[in-house]
């Protein structure tokens, strides 16, 4: 073993303006360096309670079952679907991008009879068309994405959609991975049954935890399941015994990630939700204005364009990957290309959490101008 082959860890100081992870706030990094204590240490149990309180604040909910699931955003998606679905359950998934497709794929794996309602990538759903789809049969749940990171479209009218779903006896699962902490997510006011997110986007905490919240109605569904949850690791009835009053061991909590999330959430509370949403909106507008000055065109109309993730059409004749390489290697800036059908056709620019700062917007615009001039 030639140990000297493995040099000191020294990642470049990137400016992360892609679809995630976003830049981690220095206070979060400091929190992660705190000594690790036991996952049943009374001091840690207090921190867990605080994380739950702070999560209820960002999700704008009183839901008791509000916790961070171990794993990235996809673990949140999987926890939502695995716990609500029993084999044979009819489930409706609204798909207008890559992450809707992922939900459909997961729901099938958990044995659901999946129907989909689709819109072209970049568009959003009208509550009436979802209500029509909900009339096809009695679905156990409707799942949809609030902020589609693959397209940059923000699905509005969530309250109306939830009302329609409830009229037809379906629960609503909402993906808030690219909205929580950057855009209003009003779980109780909208009546959402299960919402999940990830730590690495607007919360500016490294990837590794998936905040999730279950309404009392959703908890009732968990309690009355006929079959055990197929995933042992994500079984909320087991996990809630650790996060609830019993504090029974299920799996070892990722201690340093819980420290990180607590600090990230403390930063959200200090800034205040409204001020934080306003900051995300203002910086997005600054970006959109600058892109227009460069002659670049956003893919999504402003009426439902995500402030946290902007998709930009690659101009004719420009090598999109070469521009991204120029940004990364010359200016240390990361943005992303398109996913699936949008590969090679768009750039995705994220302004989330600690990345959403004026200086980053201005730096990106100046760097983009230079990189485009070279192509
Ligand atoms: C809308 C949405 N849902 C789910 C996910 C999955 O999250 P992760 O990649 O953290 O597992 C992502 C990740 O980008 C996302 O943007």
User: What ligands does this structure carry?
Assistant: pyridoxal-5'-phosphate
Task: Report how far the terminal alpha carbons are from each other.
Answer: 45 Å
Q: Report strand order across the widest sheet.
A: 2-10-9-8-5-3-4
What Rg is obtained from the alpha carbons, in whole angstroms? 21 Å
- Total strands: the figure is 14
Which descriptor suits the 3D outline?
globular
Q: What is the name of the CATH superfamily of the largest domain?
A: Type I PLP-dependent aspartate aminotransferase-like (Major domain)
- Along the chain, the helix and strand elements come as EHHEHEHEHEEEHEHEEHHHHEHEEEH
Instruction: Label the CATH architecture of the largest domain.
Output: 3-Layer(aba) Sandwich
Largest sheet: 7 strands, mixed
Structural class: alpha/beta
At CATH level 3, the topology of the largest domain is Aspartate Aminotransferase, domain 2
Structure, briefly:
This protein has 375 residues and is α/β, with parallel strands linked by helices. Helices cover 41% and strands 15% of the residues.
Keywords:
single chain, 375 residues, alpha/beta, Aspartate Aminotransferase, domain 1, Aspartate Aminotransferase, domain 2, 7-stranded mixed beta sheet, 3-stranded antiparallel beta sheet, 14 strands, globular, binds pyridoxal-5'-phosphate
Characterization of this structure:
There is one protein chain. The chain is α/β, with parallel strands linked by helices. The chain has two domains: 15-21 and 272-374, Aspartate Aminotransferase, domain 1, CATH 3.90.1150; 26-269, Aspartate Aminotransferase, domain 2. Helix content is 41%, strand content 15%. It has helices at 26-32, 42-59, 73-84, 98-109, 127-134, 158-167, 187-190, 216-223, 236-243, 255-271, 273-293, 320-331, 358-374; strands at residues 15-16, 65-70, 90-95, 113-118, 141-145, 147-148, 153-154, 171-175, 194-196, 209-214, 309-313, 333-334, 336-337, 346-350. Strands 2-10-9-8-5-3-4 form a seven-stranded mixed β-sheet, sandwiched between helices. The mean pLDDT is 97. Residues 19-20, 72-74, 77, 99, 145, 149, 175, 177-178, 198, 207 line the site of pyridoxal-5'-phosphate (PLP). Pyridoxal-5'-phosphate binds next to helix 3.
């Amino acid at each position: 073993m030639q140990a000297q082959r493995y040099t000191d860890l020294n990642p470049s100081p990137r400016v992360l303006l892609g679809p995630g992870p976003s830049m981690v706030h220095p206070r979060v990094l400091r929190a992660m360096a705190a000594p690790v204590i036991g996952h049943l240490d009374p001091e840690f149990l207090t921190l867990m309670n605080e994380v739950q309180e702070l999560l209820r604040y960002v999700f704008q909910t009183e839901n008791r079952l509000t916790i961070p699931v171990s794993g990235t955003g996809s673990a949140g998606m999987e926890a939502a679907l695995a716990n609500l679905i029993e084999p044979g359950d009819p489930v409706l998934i609204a798909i207008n991008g890559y992450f809707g497709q992922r939900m459909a794929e997961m729901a099938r794996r958990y044995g659901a009879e999946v129907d989909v309602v689709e819109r072209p990538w970049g568009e959003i759903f009208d509550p009436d068309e979802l209500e029509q789809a909900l009339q096809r049969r009695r679905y156990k749940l409707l799942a949809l994405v609030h902020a589609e990171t693959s397209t940059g479209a923000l699905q509005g009218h969530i309250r109306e959609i939830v009302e329609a779903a409830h009229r037809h006896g379906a629960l609503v699962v909402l993906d808030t991975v690219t909205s929580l902490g950057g855009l209003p997510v009003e779980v109780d006011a909208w009546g959402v049954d299960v919402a999940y997110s990830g730590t690495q986007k607007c919360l500016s905490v490294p990837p590794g935890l998936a905040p999730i919240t279950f309404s009392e109605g959703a908890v009732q569904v968990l309690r009355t399941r006929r079959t055990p949850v197929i995933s042992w690791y994500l079984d909320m009835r087991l996990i809630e015994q650790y996060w609830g009053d019993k504090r029974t061991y299920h799996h070892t909590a990722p201690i340093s990630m819980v420290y990180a999330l607590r600090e990230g959430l403390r930063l959200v509370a200090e800034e205040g939700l409204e001020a934080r949403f306003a900051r995300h909106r203002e910086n997005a507008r600054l970006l959109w204005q600058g892109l227009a000055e460069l002659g670049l065109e956003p893919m999504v109309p402003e009426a439902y364009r995500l402030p946290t993730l902007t998709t930009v059409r690659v101009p004719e004749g420009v090598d999109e990957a070469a521009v991204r390489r120029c940004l990364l290697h010359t200016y240390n800036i990361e943005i992303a290309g398109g996913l699936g059908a949008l590969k090679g056709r768009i750039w995705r620019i994220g302004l989330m959490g600690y990345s959403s700062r004026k200086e980053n917007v201005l730096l990106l615009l100046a760097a983009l101008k230079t990189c485009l001039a070279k192509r």
